[in-house]
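SAMPLE LOG
Freezer: B-3
Tube label: C17
Construct: single chain, 321 aa
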Amino acid sequence: MPETPSDPPPEQLPVATRYGRALLTIIVVGLALLALGSLWIYSDVRPSTDDAYVGANVVGVACQVNGPIVSVFVEDNQFVNADDPLFAIDPRDYEIALRLAEADVLRAEAALADAEQYFERVAIMAAKNYMSQNELDQSEAAVLEARASLQASKAERDQAKLNLGYTTVRAEVDGVVTNVQTSPGTYANVGDQIMALIDMNTWHMRAFFRENALQNIRAGQLAEVRLNMYPEKVFRGRVQGIGWGSSLDNGATASDLLPAIQPTVDWVQLATRFSVRVDLDGYDEEYPLRVNARGVVRVFTDTEATPENTNVEKAKEESAP
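STRUCTURE (predicted):
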């Protein structure tokens, strides 16, 4: 049986072939090192997550007085400025209550004036021993009681004035009204949230990072945001802070107030994810944002974190002796 020819020893290969193999080995090793370096840069130095959502502070617009709604001044998804009227409650009962309270103030002022005049006469008579000290004390007490009654009447008048002002519900911040589902004739009770107002000055991203990606993230670091709805637009922002807890389905936390972050795979022990808030720089009207729009957040941990944006650092400085 003929023998299969074997490769010659490396020292017998041509010089060009030996150098070519060495060069190829160097290139492969270099590419591997480059890949590892890129992986390290993007996982530790510039961590990113596609589990990120647009957020904004949402103000629940509620009533502070009871009554039927007589006017609705806005439509769903309308932009409003702070102090713009949103809706009005029938003010007639509160106008009457204010007039009654003002009348009570006038009566209390008259009663105080009468008590003060009587006290002055009693004081003169008591100085001449025509009236007893007990009568003088009683008249002085009547003056103090009349003054207290006047103060109470003024407080009730001020409250009535406030209640009348509450019949027109106004926007507290610049924003967009949403979930408007009311019409004139609806009876509103104190505390009922009639609509929601999205604060346009509080746009941010809620980015959920794995716990092993948080070691280099600090408040104040620069961040880059890309949204699915605007793939060509790059938004800029800064890390505001890192969440101190999260809520899990297995009851591992005792509070329902913590953000609930669901695991994505049940049969693998996944790293817990925590919320990192990134405040966006400004608001571009050409790219309107919407709450819960999804995107990708990348944090540049190699940028300088500003201590003034770090609540923990500020607390440490203020508590330091």
